[in-house]
Amino acid sequence: EIVMTQSPATLSVSPGERATLSCRASQSVSSNLAWYQQKPGQAPRLLIYGASTRATGIPARFSGSGSGTEFTLTISSLQSEDFAVYYCQQYNNWPTFGQGTKVEIK
Amino acid sequence: EVQLVESGGGLVQPGRSLRLSCAASGFTFDDYAMHWVRQAPGKGLEWVSGISWNSGSIGYADSVKGRFTISRDNAKNSLYLQMNSLRAEDTALYYCAKSLTGDNRDDAFDIWGQGTMVTVSS
Asked: Which chain B residue has the Cα nearest residue A55?
């Protein structure tokens, strides 16, 4: 099983600032990496797939990068609606998720 | 509208069984692999099981292997999860999710249901 490790567990950011979230895989997953956003009481929403491709309707302030074992999700200028929990997921060999990063208001 | 609606959750005693269903609409169901993902209260996401379009490729998380069985009925646009020998640690909100690009079992999930809650307790 491929283990996904996200850091930090919690990120405190002011509105308008940049947020950088990290995700590490225990072995290479190539570019088979997705990011999801989840708000309280809601199902997860796909943000990024293929490590860097934004899903339909996702604003350009969300960007993903990386390949192999190291990945990053960047939110260029945080809006109020972006405060949520973010999960990375590898799908190189059946899926596994990271434990999540909570982005909270500073 | 593309939609997934889960049902079948509830309160069940340890060791008992439960069958979850997921009704799909708004897309060609048998073109896509499908998955179950769960989330324990206050915890993160855990992939549970996935199935290819023709049921030819099936996978399970180690935590449920041998106890849970995934299946699908393409004629009914439905996905199922048979859960046997339930444990307290299986308590979670269970989501069904659709693969993004097609039959690829290794894929991101672009559509999620709202989930059905399973509580295992005596």
From this structure: B110
Is the pLDDT confidence value at B106 over 90? Answer: no
Distances in Å between the Cα of A1 and the Cα atoms of A24, A69, B63 are 14, 14, 11
Spatial distance between the Cα atoms of B39 and B53, rounded to a whole number of angstroms: 24
Non-local (6+) Cβ contacts of A76 within 8 A are: A18, A61, A62, A63
**Inter-chain residue contact A91 with B44, CB threshold 8 Å:** no
Sheet strands (E) in B26-67: 34-39, 45-51, 58-60
Query: Which among B66, B30, B34, B28 is positioned nearest to B49, based on CA atoms?
Result: B34
Which of A35, A37, A46 has the highest number of chain B CBs within 10 A, making it the mutation to test binding with B?
A: A46
CA–CA dist B119, B97 (Å, integer): 20
Single out the residue of B34, B109, B72 nearest to residue A46, CA to CA: B109
Phi and psi at B29, nearest 5°, equal -55, -45
Q: pLDDT per residue over B57-102, tens digit each?
A: 999 999 999 999 999 999 999 999 999 999 999 999 999 999 998 8
